[in-house]
């Protein structure tokens, strides 16, 4: 993988243009009559479910039988509860190892299963606040300092957020590039996998954040080496390791992968996907 500036810029642009077709459905028991017609849409890999599905949510609401004060919004794919606070691209990579499209998502308004309170979708303003919480944490790990925060101006949050939601790399990097005047210290990484747990006698698949780690910028550690270090029981005959939908090439360090495949929150998500 060529790390020249021109090639990195091209690869970053290709990465940001990447998106996922979504088929959005409602749960039949949530509606008083016929279930609304499913909605097809296309979402940026860097976006988040509450925003990407906002139009479908608005279309489904008038037909709901559940009283407003009892509605609890959450999302599901094939019996896997989807955490709203991870980028859509990460959720797709974990749930659809065979690249099955469209990404078929069910919207629920009834209470989620026991033990799944963390998947309940908050108000849209909170989604934005949560993104910036992790963005600032990723920035602190990346630069080892809070000084880059001083580069933010009054309306930068809105411009950067609009860039993320719209998949607009130029709006995003117009803000983010000012941070690059500071020396880079480390690579912020999140290692994710689709695990299995037993609840009330039934096996469930759950999306798991195995580890949030940072590696020194000079590291030569590859994704496979990192997975082996933190998930030693993984059978590499049955899984693939991906970042931003790309199967991680052998021998490429996580530092180089970060330069082109990091998500907008400044974390490199390494997804261990079981076939």
Automatic annotation (TrEMBL):
Q: Where does the record place it? A: Preautophagosomal structure membrane
Query: GO CC terms for this protein?
Result: Atg12-Atg5-Atg16 complex; autophagosome; mitochondria-associated endoplasmic reticulum membrane contact site; phagophore; phagophore assembly site membrane
Q: Which residues form the Autophagy protein ATG5 alpha-helical bundle region domain?
A: 125-179
Per the record, the GO terms for biological process are:
autophagy of mitochondrion; cellular response to nitrogen starvation; piecemeal microautophagy of the nucleus
**All copies of domain Autophagy protein ATG5 UblA, residue ranges:** 16-108
Q: In which domain of life is the source organism classified?
A: Eukaryota
Pfam families for this protein: ATG5_HBR (PF20637), ATG5_UblA (PF20638), ATG5_UblB (PF04106)
Q: Where is the Autophagy protein ATG5 UblB domain?
A: 187-272
User: What does this chain do?
Assistant: Involved in autophagic vesicle formation.
What name does the UniProt record give this protein? Autophagy protein 5
């Amino acid at each position: 993988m060529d790390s020249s500036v021109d090639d990195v810029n091209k690869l970053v642009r290709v990465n940001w243009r990447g998106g996922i077709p979504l088929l959005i459905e409602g749960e039949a028991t949530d509606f008083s009559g016929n279930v609304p017609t499913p909605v097809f849409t296309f979402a940026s890999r860097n976006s988040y479910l509450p925003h990407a599905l906002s139009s479908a949510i608005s279309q489904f609401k008038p037909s709901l039988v559940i009283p407003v004060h009892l509605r609890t919004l959450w999302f599901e794919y094939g019996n896997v509860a989807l955490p709203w606070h991870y980028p859509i691209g990460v959720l797709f990579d974990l749930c659809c190892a065979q690249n099955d499209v469209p990404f078929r998502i069910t919207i629920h308004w009834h209470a989620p299963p026991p033990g799944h309170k963390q998947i309940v979708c908050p108000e849209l303003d909170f989604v934005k606040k949560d993104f910036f919480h992790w963005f600032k944490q990723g920035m602190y790990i990346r630069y080892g300092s809070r000084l880059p925060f001083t580069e933010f101006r009054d309306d930068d949050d809105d411009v950067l957020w609009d860039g993320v939601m719209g998949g607009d790399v130029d709006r995003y990097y117009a803000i983010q590039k000012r941070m690059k005047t500071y020396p880079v210290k480390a690579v912020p990484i999140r290692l994710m996998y689709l695990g299995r747990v037993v609840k009330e006698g039934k096996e469930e698949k759950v999306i798991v954040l195995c580890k949030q780690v940072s590696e020194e910028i000079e590291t030569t550690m590859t994704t496979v080496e990192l997975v082996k270090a933190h998930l030693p029981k993984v059978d590499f005959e049955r899984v693939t390791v991906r970042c931003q939908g790309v199967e991680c090439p052998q021998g490429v360090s996580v530092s180089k992968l970060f330069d082109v495949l990091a998500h907008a929150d400044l974390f490199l998500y390494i997804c261990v996907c079981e076939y």
